[in-house]
Amino acid sequence: MNFLSHYYLDKEHPSVYYKLGLLLPDLVRGYNQHMRKGVATYHPTLPEHQAITAGIAKHQLTDKVFHGLAEFAALQANFKSELKSLHLLEALPRAWFLAHIGVEMMIDRQLLKLYPHLYVEYYETLDAVSQPVVEKYFTETGCNHVSSEFFGNFKVFTERRFLQYYPSDNHFTEALLGAWYRATGKKAMPSVRESTQIALMNFERHNADLLQAIPEIVTQQLKTAT
User: Fold this and answer.
1) For 45-52, which contacts have Cβ atoms below 8 Å and span 24 or more sequence positions?
2) Does pTM top 0.90 for this prediction?
């Protein structure tokens, strides 16, 4: 799932460091290759570090459950179908990746449409995190080699607060194609951007109910997975 969705499922948890842990794997590129082993072998004594580790574990479990859902597979197929109908599969290399992140980001967009102030609460939570506490976490897990990347990404994430723009059709399309560009190195031509936005809006209109239902479906699946 994407940024806001992870937070939404556990927003009642009292620890800001747990919620940071829910975010952390998405802000370290190649987390599984560069950080997972250090976290798995770390036995924290600080409550804040215990919370970060627990948040990371919940992030990973939630991703496993979510990506295994038949509903997620169906949503990806539906989005690819919309792209295909506008002849975008050829214009957008790795369209499977676009469909994957498109569904994830669209779920966050639905949450913001249902709960417009959710992003404010989320960013206020992250603002309460103490950097020295997190720096010590990277040191004690032996992951200092990725700490600068994390803190750079975290700074951009919390300062730009781009989630607030997801309800805007234009901004959402730009955000999706921006993520696709970072993964592929390809920039979409203006005509492709316009067609992609049409595909996104068609996809949303046809799948809004299922997109909005996903957080509850994941919540129920998590109850049987733990």
Assistant:
1) 46/133, 46/136, 47/15, 48/15, 48/17, 48/130, 48/133, 48/137, 49/17, 49/133, 49/136, 49/137, 49/140, 51/15, 51/17, 51/18, 51/21, 52/17, 52/18, 52/20, 52/21, 52/24, 52/134, 52/137
2) yes
pLDDT at residue 226, rounded to an integer? 66
Phi, psi for 12 (deg, rounded to 5)? -85, -5
Element (DSSP H or E) covering residue 142: none
The pLDDT of residue 183 is: 86
Mean pLDDT in the chain? 95
H-only helix segments in the chain: 3-9, 16-23, 31-34, 36-40, 47-67, 70-85, 95-114, 118-127, 131-140, 147-160, 169-184, 190-225
What would the two tokens of residue 21 be?
A: 């842990």
Contacts for 192 with CB less than 8 Å, ≥ 6 apart = 88, 91, 92
At 35, the pLDDT band (50, 70, 90 cuts) reads very high
Residue type, 225: A
The letter for the amino acid at 50 is: Q
Count of the separate structural domains present in the chain: 1
d(CA 154, CA 126): 9
Task: Residue 153: give the domain boundaries.
Answer: 3-225
Find out whether 150 and 24 touch, Cβ atoms under 8 Å.
yes
Task: Specify whether the CB–CB gap between 22 and 59 falls below 8 A.
Answer: yes
